[in-house]
Design goal:
- Strands 1-3-2-6-8-7-14-15-11-9-10 form an eleven-stranded mixed β-sheet, sandwiched between helices.
- The protein has 16 helices and 15 strands.
- The chain has a single domain, classed as Amidase signature (AS) domain (Amidase signature (AS) enzymes, Alpha-Beta Complex), CATH 3.90.1300.
- A hairpin with a 2-residue loop joins β12 and β13.
- It has about 475 residues and is of the alpha/beta class.
- α3 runs antiparallel to α4, α8 runs antiparallel to α16 and α11 packs across α12.
Length: about 475
């Protein structure tokens, strides 16, 4: 088996091969580190590569296999972690020059659980400063390139995790999603981006445990790998009030369920408060819906009016981030990302009344979205209104959709993702084709709160009938795999 072939083996298979002593954890990690370093110059997906630590841990993992020790479900499997998520002993910068030398003493719970399951953290992936952009670039490390084309954005804010997984640098990665930050780059790079429901995976380090809209998520190439990560990461933590008294679904059982989708009701819509959608997106979306028809699902268009969610999201998120990071603006403005600074300056003028108006609007939005499920089990829509934007896209400028310039990148490009951060519904972006430029496109599926396992079952059924993991971007020295 060549290193390039090894790079695209799913984590579920890697774990089994390690347990069967057919792959050495040390050799796997050595190959992973080499591939990361090889891809770093062209992709720039990592802020920190923890090669020495990872290789030491991989050697210990190999000895555990040889000694017949009990092995966790991810024993010896490399994982990358977005640089917003704390990792003990590995630099965590939040993409900021302010924290360029910060090394946490304690893991986030999600990371701790992955390590306990045997996964080995190989490095920290890129994020815009404090995760506050849909484009992954920051003064600390520069720009992360799309896995398919260097002249396109990787999306954000989990661009590094998406690119690392898409390019076969690691089999799985930890991401975060505060307004689409997992699903946007997943769609841009042709991988699976799953934002679970509120309270499924703890965010014990969130400063607002009750009003949180951000999620620590898996980023993978296959639905089964997403299920495996969730199986490990999910579960109650007393420090996160949203996780209390929440039963843990059987994620792996859901994706292993064979059969069709007869009896499932899927409502679909192509717009969510936006007008412009690329023809290629609509074509790929129609083809994806046809797959669900083949699987026996009943389809119905959802035509209920819907207002663009961007303003409600921006006030809720912006006020939260100003409370978190406003003191850094006062002390470190000159070394901070100008895009982040400009967004926070806009937030600074909001009043407490405006914030609570947005909080009330969030509740109305929640109730509106849940009404969709009176007629559906799953709601389908595009993930983005177009494929990855140009690498030099101006965050404050218009985006181009089929030669039409459309203002406000949040409202125009990803109105489909923001609502479900606010409502807590589980949502997943799945690859569903390519546009004429060879760029990946995504379909988003949304389920009721608490039905993450159902969403995984439907995603796995779609993957079986429209597989994608064999289609790979080209790393230097490789050919595209179709």
């Amino acid at each position: 088996m060549t290193d390039d072939e090894l790079a695209y083996i799913p984590a579920t298979d890697l774990a089994e091969l390690i347990r069967a002593r057919q792959i050495s954890p040390f050799e796997l990690m050595h190959s992973t580190v080499q591939r990361i370093e090889r891809g770093q110059g062209s992709l720039n997906a990592f802020i920190t590569i923890a090669a020495e630590q990872a290789l030491i841990q991989a050697r210990a993992a190999e000895q555990a296999v040889m000694h017949g020790d009990p092995l966790g479900p991810l024993h010896g499997v490399p994982v990358a972690v977005k640089d917003l998520v704390p990792t003990a002993g590995i630099r965590t910068t939040w993409g900021s020059l302010i924290f360029k030398d910060h090394v946490p003493e304690v893991d986030a719970v999600a990371v701790s659980r992955l390590r306990q399951a045997g996964a080995i953290v190989v490095g920290k992936t890129t994020t815009p400063e404090f995760g506050q952009q849909c484009l992954t670039e920051a003064p600390l490390f520069g720009r992360t390139c799309n896995a398919w084309r260097a002249d396109r954005s990787s999306g954000g804010s989990s661009g590094g995790s998406a690119v690392a997984v898409a390019a076969g640098l690691v089999p799985i990665a930890v991401a975060t999603d505060g307004g689409g930050s997992t699903r946007i780059p997943a769609a841009c790079n042709g991988v699976v981006g799953f934002k679970q429901g509120l309270g499924v995976v703890p965010q014990e380090y969130a400063q607002d445990g009750f009003g949180n809209i951000s999620y620590t998520t898996p980023m993978t190439r296959t639905v089964a790998d997403t299920a495996l990560m969730l199986e490990v990461m999910a579960g109650q933590d007393i420090r996160d009030p949203l996780t209390t008294a929440r039963p843990k679904p059987d994620f792996l059982g859901a994706v292993r369920t064979e059969g069709d989708l007869r009896g499932l009701r899927i409502a679909w819509r192509t717009r969510l408060g936006n007008e412009a959608v690329a023809a290629a997106v609509l074509g790929a979306f129609d083809a994806a819906l046809a797959a669900f028809v083949e699987l026996g699902a009943a389809l119905e268009e959802l035509t209920a009016p819907f207002e663009n969610p961007e303003k409600v999201w921006f006030v809720n998120n912006g006020a939260y981030r100003m409370a978190q990071f406003g003191h850094h603006l006062r002390a470190h403005r000159v070394i901070m990302c100008p895009t982040f600074v400009r967004q926070m300056d806009r937030v600074a003028s909001y009043t407490a009344i405006e914030l609570y108006d947005a909080i009330f609007a969030r509740t109305r939005l929640y109730r509106q979205v849940q009404a969709w499920f009176d007629v559906a089990d799953i709601v389908a829509m595009p993930t983005l209104s177009r494929s990855a934007v140009p690498a030099d896209q101006d965050f404050f400028g218009p985006i181009e959709i089929d030669n039409q310039l459309v203002e406000n990148i949040r409202a125009a490009w990803y109105p489909y993702t923001m609502p479900f951060n606010l409502t807590g519904n589980p949502a997943v972006s799945l690859p569903c084709g390519f546009d004429a430029d060879g760029m990946p496109l995504g379909i988003q599926l949304v389920a009721r709160p608490g039905e993450d396992a159902l969403l995984l079952r439907v995603a796995a059924a779609f993957e079986r009938t429209r597989p994608w993991a064999h289609i790979r971007p080209r790393l230097a020295g490789e050919e595209h795999r179709r």
